[in-house]
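We emphasize that the prediction below concerns an isolated chain of 515 residues; any contacts that depend on oligomerization or on bound cofactors are therefore not represented. The input was used exactly as deposited, without trimming of termini.
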Amino acid sequence: MDMHTVVVGTSGTTPEDVIAVARHNAKVELSAEALAALARAREIVDALAAKPEPVYGVSTGFGALASRHISPELRAQLQRNIVRSHAAGMGPRVEREVVRALMFLRLKTVASGHTGVRPSVAQTMADVLNAGITPVVHEYGSLGCSGDLAPLSHCALTLMGEGDAEGPDGVVKPAGELLAAAGITPVELREKEGLALLNGTDGMLGMLCMAIADLKKLYTSADITAALTLEALLGTEKVLAPELHAIRPHPGQGASAANMLAVLKDSGLTGHFQEEEAPRVQDAYSVRCAPQVNGAGRDTIAYALTVAERELASAVDNPVVLPDGRVESNGNFHGAPVAYVLDFLAIVAADLASIAERRTDRLLDKNRSHGLPPFLADDAGVDSGLMIAQYTQAALVSEMKRLAVPASADSIPSSAMQEDHVSMGWSAARKLRTAVDNLTRVIAVELYAATRGIELRKGLTPAPASQAVIAAARAAGVQGPGPDRFLAPDLAAADAFVREGKLVAAVEPVTGPLA
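Result of the prediction step, given as a token string:
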């Protein structure tokens, strides 16, 4: 077994495994323990299916139709029908990495031995992932309760050899053709299996895992850009002293302050704030309080990770097969725990973007930038400098504030009022992905402005870490001060520099590892 294989057992999985499969095409393999647990649970389902008493999901209809007992000769049709009828998504296709996370996490729950799915069905799920076949899943269709129903149904449809999917070459074809080309036999669903493939928080959970990983990198990047802005504004690093943060011991705050202090070590620009005609007693909040704001976001990410890890250790299905042989209905499919933290992350991302934009604006305003030229322009008036870069940043921040409105505070009843309260967790996850994307661009604009501001401080020597950032950014196509030019390519280069982790990579050889 190589390092690119993720083993799926009975005890859940990790965020790192989710990202390895979703983003890096890691292979998946069912453990012997999982295969044995699947077989034991299936024996229980088969025994219940043979009894005359109705059991939800095994010998009944679903949702508001659960009162109908389904005779044995109709049960295979029942399972096919739930997949076909629930594959009702609409709108644009969902990204490949999200669909792979969705499939992997449903396999994780199936492998727990609490769903009653046959081992052969679980193996087919693994085979489809390993073949690089990605079902076509649409943007709309999940209310985040009773699972991410429509998205998971489109995935189950592919297992049946129906609907459309994307092949390993990126071309969308009928799923049956792709399975045949990969040597995979479509599944013929039996009692409970259709329901078990649809009933989980897998889509919203997969997007949460990826958002946490992305935000961790972005918060480190934001600590760096905040330090660069402080330096460009000739601010004081004294507010970053560890003893000041020890007396308000939020872990994230201390980590952010330490990161900023490491970036600013040996700077020749800091500490000049009292040498002006009107000396500053202290820096503005957007500079001075950066560790407090960045740190609070870090602590929120830590809480979200705790929720994600609990969910990754869960078996989310209804009904569930218990070790004592009971098959019991439950409400564990409700997405509230995941939905809440997805919304919480959208809020902190919006606020991080907001404070970064305020620092950028301060760099561009000659009345507040402490000697920098208006808009960091070469010849202000003839040149507009970064005036409209800040407009773009402000537009991104404004959208992020709208995206911070919680989806989980909304609920629309469904299924003839049987499912009368839902989490909207899928919607929370989708808007968080947009927020994370926007945050990357916002940080890139601050990076662009701050590095230009530092370079315009002639006669003063920046911190070694700042010099390393500027050199790496310029090598990556993020140009420095000068007359006006076509700005969009510069901003795109700055975006790529942050998005690809090059900002952190430029700093850490000087500072050592940052939190």
